[in-house]
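Weekly structure sync, notes
Attendees: PL, DS, HV (note-taker this week)

Item 1: Large ribosomal subunit protein uL22
DS walked through the input record. Source organism listed as uncultured Solirubrobacteraceae bacterium. Sequence as pasted into the shared doc:
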Amino acid sequence: MRVSATAKYTRHSTRKARLVTQAITGRPVAEAASLLRFMPQGAARDVLKVLNSAAANAENNHDLDPEDLVVFSAYANEGPTIKRFRPRAQGRAFPIHKPMTHITVIVENRDVPRRPRTAPARRSRSTADREA
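Item 1 (cont.): predicted structure, written out as tokens:
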């Protein structure tokens, strides 16, 4: 079962937050959390909060064991941009853009047996003609 958590309007660049989210995708939750604690990026703290929230959602709302959870997907989407102006010399004003990011983390329980994906069986024309 997949469980998600989202943090909207975090004050980070989307490009920088994506570096952090790509690093934890596919890892167990405990390993991803320890990795995020020691990452130097500022967005790692917000991604860690969302990861902990997703694990808590899985445990409290769906009775899943947090030890069995794996980060199925983590992504950072672009949010709105706050626009400000910095006064400069001779009456000019330079724009300042303060980007925001929406961070989503989806965790999945890996104890569920997964069916292997197989391609449909291909039959030769002679076999298909005999069955018809």
